[in-house]
Amino acid sequence: MEKARWYVVHTFSGYENKVKANIEKAIKNRDMEELIQAVEVPLQQEVEEKNGVKKTVQRKTFPGYVLIKMIMTDDTWYVVRNTRGVTGFVGPDSKPVSLSLEEVKNMGIELYGAASNVNIGDAVTLLTGAFEGSEGIVKEIHQAKGTLVVAVSGFGREFPVEISIDQVEIFE
Fold it and tell me: Which residues lie below 8 Å from residue 145, measured CB to CB, with a gap of 6+?
């Protein structure tokens, strides 16, 4: 199977988060988690002073753009390209061109190698936090953020817990 690469999608200004949410919804609805692995809107922290009070705010690093880690197929191209708010992929003649790993790092997206050995459906033990020692099943992998969503059973029901990739241990 082909390796997933990072692509840049141009969006209407101000629609970055809406595009991200719509693509993530389409991924779930079409069961494409293996093909489209991450959707990111790069943010940067800035200190802003207003009326003498300093406040840390998050601003979009690249307004009008969304980064997507995916395996390029006709289906994935179609899903992303036809998402409301997307104007096209960045590349010559709107043909998608993947970013190099160096370009992705320079854009502020952290790359986590630890996620490569974790798969959806794996049984894991949580090593830290309120649910330390609890066992669960990996439901989602957010490689760009370095987190997992693990379904943990407790209190008579199953619920999702988002945890850092390096804070789980895979059952052997």
Answer: 38, 40, 110
pLDDT in tens, 118-152: 778 888 888 888 888 888 888 887 766 677 889 99
Is the distance from CB of 139 to CB of 149 less than 8 angstroms? yes
The C-alpha atoms of residue 41 and residue 43 are separated, in whole angstroms, by 6
Handedness of CA 119, 122, 127, 132 (dihedral sign): positive
pTM metric for this prediction: 0.62
Cβ–Cβ < 8 Å for 86, 9: yes
Tokens of 8: 């840049």
pLDDT in tens, 85-113: 999 999 887 689 988 877 877 776 655 44
Q: Give Cα 134 to chain centroid, integer Å.
A: 25
